[in-house]
């Protein structure tokens, strides 16, 4: 993973190494079925969410962009359009294409970016099945806010991050999952192209899961996983 301050081509190479090392090419045949529900059924972080800020600064890739994003970076900057470090625009839900989907087999609905929804909803489904049951009201999605104490937008602001069973796995607490659960979580993150806050080097955030792949690779992986499952 890139070190802090790494930019441009070197950071992009770090992203490519991450893809090669961590993304599982063996995708199961079962498609992710996306059931869109009314936005009122989705849950965003509570108003005091700033006290549960995510994305440790030492753990982010600075300057990582897809080739398409890189070619537009100056233009977008001139227009004042903020983006996540991996190339996703941030902002209000409707503007960036956030929709709310039911996690199959649960009463939980999550507002996430539609074009990568198979990654987050598929992960949440398997988390519920293989790690622990999801609780309604404890799982959060899109929130148009910056990281606390920073001008950099959160992954939540791009609709590419979720928090699962947040009260059970509070920010800064380590070891809220068993060794077996951690092994399963890491395997699922590898499958869906996610990064887990439990693997942050400094302050752990075990509730938090984010799409970390460059935008083009994340969208391509989402299409592969979804196949013909959307409805």
From TrEMBL:
UniProt feature coiled coil, ranges: none
Superkingdom of source: Bacteria
InterPro entries referenced in this protein's UniProt entry, alphabetically: Peptidase_M15C, Zn_M74/Hedgehog-like
TM ranges: none
Segments of skewed composition (Acidic residues): 29-39
A GO term, aspect molecular function: peptidase activity
Residues of the Peptidase M15C domain: 148-211
SUPFAM superfamilies attached to this UniProt entry: Hedgehog/DD-peptidase
Positions of region (Disordered): 29-60
Name the UniProt record assigns to this protein: M15 family peptidase
Species in which this protein is naturally found: Polyangium fumosum
